[in-house]
Amino acid sequence: MLKSMDKYLAAAALSAKNYLGYASEVIFRSGFLVVILFVFVNLWTVTYSRSGAEIIAGFDLRQMLWYLVFTESIVISRPRVHLKVEEDIRTGAVSYALARPYNYLLFQLSVSFGERMVRFISTLTVGYAVMTVMVRPYFPDLSILPFLTVTVALAMMADLIGMITIGFLAFWVEDVSPFFLVYSRLQMLLGGMIVPITLFPPFLRKLSEWLPFRFMVYAPAKLFVNCDISQALSLMAGQIFICVLLFLIGMSIYRMGVKRLDVNGG
Amino acid sequence: MCIDVNHVSKQYTLWKIKGWTRRERQVIEAVKDVSFRVEPGRALALIGPNGAGKSTLIKLLCGILSPTRGSIRVLGMDPFKDRSKLAYHISSVFGQRSQLWYHLPPIDTFLLLGRIYDIDRVELKKRMKELVELFDLSSFLYQPVRKLSLGQRMRCEIAAALIHNPKILFLDEPTIGLDVVARSMVIDILKDLNQRKNVTIILTSHDTGDIERLCEDVIVLNEGRIVLESNIREMRKNFFHTKIIEIEFAGQHADLDLPPGVSVIERSGPVVKLEVNLKVQDANEVVSRIVAQNSVRDITIQDPPLESIIQHIYLSGDPAGREAEQNAQIDG
Amino acid sequence: MSTVGKYLGLFLGYLYINAKGLLEYKVSSLIALFGSLLNSAIWLVFWWVFFKRFPNISEWQFVHLFTIWAVLNVALTLVSVFYNVYKIPAIINEGKLEYYLVRPKNALFHLLVARMQLIDLLEAAIWFISFIILKPELPAILLFLLMSVISAAIIHGFLLILGSLGFFLKSADGIGTELYNALITFSTYPNWIFRGAAKWIIFTVIPAGFISYVPVQVIYNRAYLWILGSLGFGILLNVIGCVVFSRGLKYFETGNTFVLRAD
């Protein structure tokens, strides 16, 4: 089993290496990140000072700001893997993948994961620099680092599997972008990208808890600003469960799609 | 006089960025001291390799760019200063760039062009009817452009360029990417336009076949300079120092006993191609000699294609061009 | 026909042909419309949550925030009628400018009206109707329309200046996009979150204050003098834009330009 995972690790490493060349470009093209962080710093500084609250939704001001840097970095670093899958299906390249000794979903996951890691680290570096200038530096507890790395990786995997699964809808529809739009906007709000989900009124919070998005964005960012190892373990369990669940859903959609391809011709 | 170009040069300034802050200025002369004239109703070809300055010259003539030195008159106007006025009387077709609306039928583009050129409705209808007949567009006038073949599209493109009845038509690679039939049709229409409607045509093309069929005059540019300005027929005469003889032998042929000035350029089975240098040998003599010595099934004598003449001009560079011009004058 | 008549005719000609082209790619434009509305909806939910949690944070309520989103979006859809204003650097760099230069009409006017993203007007209608539902008072509705038009003029002028810099700077496209994104982002937040230098920036370099703060002042607080300020600023930006464009065009034509397409 472990042996057969080798090729996926190799694919991810290769993709990361390939993308390293673009890392400097990511850093230079981060004007949007700077602008949005500037706005967030202003918004929350004013909100905390005017409302007089020390803690809002379980975060103090510093935690709130670093939480947002982290969520933005996770979401911005996302490669457009759903479009890659859509193209593979439209051009028929997916049928060639059938003849190869790998799982198509896992392969796409590895490649996009490698790219995303490089992008995430470069984006986070920029965000970190911007926040250090605008507020002051933040040093998370070093003991949390291994846990953080694992939750970030799991969060990204869950998200990428979700995106690949959306790409698989291209077996039935011509353009998967509306589905991705719904997915990404729900993630933006209910995943906790623009605000921690703990700020929500009860019904929105319930909704968020029933959806997988909080494991993709909220969970790792929360761990980043609030180092609680006991929480980390239950979080990871949840993330692994979501990854497996999404993978099974993705694979069954893929199988149905391939069958359809078989019946109708590629 | 339709076009009068007088000692025109065009320079571009290119800033090269070196390191972080240093910038180096580099002047590129795309057109160098070019002079020529075109009479109304002529068809002129501009030829030259990439970067020779053909497109820059056309842009100068349309008034898109202003000359660094020298003067240009087109239909009695300064194209750069009177660009908007001149625009009513000239038109241009750029092979790679379409002015047709891709998702709409060509008729819609024609109607829009009517607005752009202030053509009143009655006149516009008349013009469109003429062009539809001339270019045989009626079968696809109402079909979206994206569904047309490349040849049909190019016919529409040229028709669109003619909607305001221009006196001069500039064409930059109009036949690029077209198949033989479509290309031939486009050239026939242009020729008809030039000869019957007296539209002056200025054409650039990489296809010397097009040029031979359509144009009377030719200007060869290289590195911004005019290397040769000539009549196509004269050019042939002056540059044909060779002829090609193609022979199909009836059976086994012995090793050919070739006189000096004749060389074999191709050999495939019974067919042999010879090149004869006319300065040394007479082509007819070579033919009679071969026929006398061998049994021959078929024999043809051809001029080399225009292509190879042009290649010859480029290869021999500027001095040869001058020499050729002088030769032409002596011969004339 | 008078000159004005001819130019109006040209505008109508392009309006007709763009409207006809609209029917050709319905699906992709509807998806874009859906995406834009969905994005706004998500942000509005965020603001609804925000104001529910902090009702006394300022004199602003959710309705004010909804207003700036509506004004901004209606303004953007109006700018879409002159869609090429977004594409000026690309038009210059890809040599498409020549198409307009060889025509007998003013090149800037011609290129601005040549492409229209008319599907966006549907979005404008949706925002307009939702504003009417939220605030069904005639003066407010008229002021809303007026401020949307002025905001559109400001965005248009801003884009025109940035785009025309493309004649001089190869990187104008990238810088322009960044500044435009900053303008739009700043315009979707209440002005009172900005302090210090940022307060000045949003009324000068990145004039988001005119698009967010001023309409709220005019519609809810009857600060009518602000209308003149905004209008003046909008006109100023467009005049500067025209000047930069014509200067740039001169520069382009005399060929002292990096756009080297010698062939």
UniProtKB/TrEMBL annotation, chain A:
Instruction: Provide the transmembrane region boundaries.
Output: 26-44, 117-139, 145-173, 185-204, 232-254
Entry keyword set: Membrane, Transmembrane, Transmembrane helix
Name listed for the protein in its UniProt record = ABC-2 type transporter domain-containing protein
Q: Which organism is it from?
A: Fervidicola ferrireducens
From TrEMBL, chain B:
Citing just one GO molecular function, the answer is:
ATP hydrolysis activity
Pfam families named in the record? ABC_tran
Spell out the Gene3D superfamilies in the cross-references.
P-loop containing nucleotide triphosphate hydrolases (3.40.50.300)
InterPro entries noted in UniProt: AAA+_ATPase, ABC_transporter-like_ATP-bd, ABC_transporter_ATP-binding, P-loop_NTPase
Could you name the domain of life of the organism this protein comes from? Bacteria
Q: Which residues form the ABC transporter domain?
A: 3-248
Q: Which PANTHER family match?
A: ABC TRANSPORTER ATP-BINDING PROTEIN, ABC-TRANSPORT PROTEIN, ATP-BINDING COMPONENT
Q: What is this protein called?
A: ABC transporter ATP-binding protein NatA
Species per Swiss-Prot/TrEMBL record: Fervidicola ferrireducens
High-level lineage: Bacteria, Bacillati, Bacillota, Clostridia, Thermosediminibacterales
Automatic annotation (TrEMBL), chain C:
Q: Name one Pfam family in it.
A: ABC2_membrane_6
Key words, A-Z: Membrane, Transmembrane, Transmembrane helix
List where the protein spans the membrane.
30-50, 62-86, 107-134, 140-162, 200-220, 226-245
> Under what name is this protein listed?
ABC-2 type transporter domain-containing protein
InterPro entries recorded? ABC-2_transporter-like (IPR010390)
Q: Spell out the coiled coil positions from the record.
A: none
| Species this chain originates from | Fervidicola ferrireducens
